[in-house]
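Fold it.
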Amino acid sequence: SHILVPAIHRNRGEIRDIFAREMSEWGRPAPEGLTDTPAELAEAARLHLREKFLRAKVGISGANFMVAETGTLMVVESEGNGRMCLTLPETLISVVGIEKIVPTWQDLEVFLQTLPRSSTAERMNPYTSMWTGTTEEDGPQTFHLILIDNGRTDTLADEVGRQALRCIRCSACLNVCPVYERAGGHAYGSVYPGPIGAILSPQLRGTASEIDASLPYASTLCGACYEVCPVAIDIPEVLVHLRERIAEGGQVTREGNKVVLKPAKGHAAERAAMRAARWAFSHPG
């Protein structure tokens, strides 16, 4: 429900109950008498997951950035689970969107300073892992890289909407959005919640479905997201641009296929927005 903190919609008691109920189904059970103190929950998760990492033959990761200059991939994180996934399995498969590519290491330097400050208010992430292919007798011995387009090229062709591809997934816009604060991340129906999801998901998936067509209206246009965005994505501008596209109709891309939308007649767009708002506010979290 949050780009950076995916379990933010759960409290400590709920997490403890989930651990007690589910861990035994997937491996090491939760310790007897597990409480909801953060230290005990972290220890239970660590013991459970470490066995998984040590036994895994294949690891699947994403990447925060890729450097075209040397073909290097990079993952930044705070917990250490990413590094275990990247280093312990025999085979590593990385699935990365094409917008994550930066030309040179000099370009990467800027993002390495920007991302931790905007996401966790740190000068540097605790774990910064980089790899360029494989190294004999060290880490995975087989590496596969899968580059994902999935609508990104079509988004790049839109002179206004393309700025959404600058997103570095810091989640700063979520933390200041009044709509996200009330509705929660699951209300967006996408892996990208919050203001950035409201402009990115409709472009990657198209606006042919009712939920995707409603996302550009999931905003008050207050501009708080634009003010905190470290890469200066004018989210309100893109939201208005997408609303115009939905109202006028025309050809859009949906899951890689070209489809034609009928223009919204009369107050149809407004009604769609109100339906989306009612649904979002009735399904918080």
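Residues 152-282 form a domain with the Fumarate Reductase Iron-sulfur Protein; Chain B, domain 2 fold (CATH 1.10.1060).
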